[in-house]
Design goal:
about 290 residues, alpha/beta, 7-stranded parallel sheet, two-stranded parallel ribbon, 11 helices, globular
């Protein structure tokens, strides 16, 4: 099965043009490596990495791009210019303000980047003359959470307690509006665009150095010989390695390229039930694997 999926991805992405926003980020840098392996031609558009230790800098990520554009997703004119000049077969929109605590510090920036930034990408795609698949990355935090202890389904009510979650829920409404208004599947032969939003969260993996993320915070505490502080140790989360959602995004995009009128909707991506653990359980497992004392 794995070989079959890899063959499909290779067939669908080899020599294809892929425009990636947020390519300097954690998931974006991993996506560059995968697309390189698949033989795609990539153009990236994102802000510069925050520090020299970020994964993008460690990989020299620009080498995996036909062109690496360091710019703001809110610069609608430049973004549109680059997308139209490249005429991509696929657009993966990952650029975002992705931290909950930062969203409390800078709520307006969070709403602008996550909501207006997404609208800018979709609006640029409207002018593309060629067929194109768009994967709009949001989060599993887009749902109103009644704390019922069960997994969300795509039809659950959108909401958001904190500015980050609310900005992504708003983002989903924007995506759905563009999908209905400008990229309606009934008019596919006219616009030739297929758009899906993808919802995943609690992604972990090598190269994540962000603040207020569980694994980086644990590593920093171990390195600095300080106590590990857990805000919500009993909170249960669906943890997944970064390659899992990225593989799902790519597989969905490949199917959308083959069947462009069949997948114009929102998709949840999560791990196996065995990987739904509390923050405390993940912390204990990591400390044990790291070889540090608890």
């Amino acid at each position: 099965m794995v070989i079959m999926k890899y063959t499909l991805l290779k067939e669908q992405f080899k020599n294809k043009k892929v425009f990636v926003t947020g390519h300097t980020g954690f998931k974006g840098s991993w996506l560059l490596l995968i697309l390189k392996e698949l033989g795609a031609q990539v153009r990236g558009y994102a802000l510069a990495p925050e520090n020299e230790h970020d994964l993008f800098n460690q990989l020299n990520g620009a080498q995996y791009c036909e062109k690496s554009i360091i710019a703001d997703i809110l610069d609608a004119d430049l973004l549109k210019k680059e997308i139209l000049a490249f005429q991509p077969d696929y657009v993966f929109h990952l650029a975002a303000q992705a931290l909950v605590r930062k969203s409390y510090e800078n709520p307006i920036e969070t709403y602008m980047v996550n909501t207006i930034g997404t609208a800018n990408v979709l609006d640029a795609m409207r002018s593309l003359p060629n067929a194109c698949v768009g994967i709009m990355v949001t989060t599993d935090k887009v749902y109103e959470n009644p704390e019922r202890g069960t997994a969300f389904v795509e039809s659950d009510k959108l909401g958001g307690y904190d500015p980050y979650s609310a900005s992504k829920a708003t983002c989903e409404i924007v995506i759905d509006s563009y999908r209905n208004s400008f990229f309606n599947k009934q008019d596919f032969n006219l616009h030739k665009k297929s758009i899906a939003s993808v919802r995943a969260g609690n992604v972990i993996g090598g190269g994540d150095f962000s603040k207020d993320r569980i694994i980086p915070d644990i590593v920093r505490s171990i390195q600095n010989h300080t106590a590990i502080s857990l805000r919500n140790p009993n909170a249960t989360r669906p943890w997944q390695h970064v390659l899992e959602p990225l593989g799902a995004y790519l597989l969905l995009a490949a199917h959308m390229h083959q069947y462009p009128e069949a997948f114009n909707e929102a998709f949840n991506f999560g791990p196996a039930i065995d990987d739904v653990l509390t923050v405390k359980e993940v912390t204990q497992s990591f400390i044990s694997a790291f070889g540090a004392s608890q």
